[in-house]
């Protein structure tokens, strides 16, 4: 896929994720297993980091900072909603998801360079 396609995909994913983060969470979703929301935050930010990395030619640390700013903005936005609440641990899950992608990507690139 081209960078332009990844940029469009990134924008679409960002809009969908933002809409999901402002939705009211029903009790049945949170009963799947403890901390399902942390797993969701981790996975969403892992995917966002992947798409962002493919979409833009900017240094990884800038991508991490932008994703952390987005994660912080999401938590702040959730704190403003009467049916949601901000969570520092959700923010940590966001950071861990993004960081995990970049660590795996770095190790993959390093392995490919040796081969």
Automatic annotation (TrEMBL):
<keyword id="KW-1133">Transmembrane helix</keyword>
<protein>
    <recommendedName>
        <fullName>VanZ-like domain-containing protein</fullName>
    </recommendedName>
</protein>
<keyword id="KW-0472">Membrane</keyword>
<feature type="transmembrane region" description="Helical">
    <location>
        <begin position="91"/>
        <end position="108"/>
    </location>
</feature>
<keyword id="KW-0812">Transmembrane</keyword>
<feature type="transmembrane region" description="Helical">
    <location>
        <begin position="43"/>
        <end position="70"/>
    </location>
</feature>
């Amino acid at each position: 896929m081209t960078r332009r396609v990844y940029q469009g995909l990134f924008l679409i994913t960002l809009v969908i994720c933002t809409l999901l983060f402002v939705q009211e969470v029903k009790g049945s979703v949170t009963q799947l297993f403890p901390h399902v929301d942390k797993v969701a935050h981790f996975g969403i930010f892992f995917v966002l980091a992947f798409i962002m990395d493919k979409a833009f030619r900017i240094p990884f640390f800038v991508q991490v900072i932008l994703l952390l700013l987005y994660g912080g903005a999401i938590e702040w936005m959730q704190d403003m909603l009467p049916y949601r609440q901000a969570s520092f641990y959700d923010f940590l899950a966001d950071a861990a998801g993004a960081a995990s992608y970049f660590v795996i990507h770095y190790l993959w690139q390093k392995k490919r360079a040796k081969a």
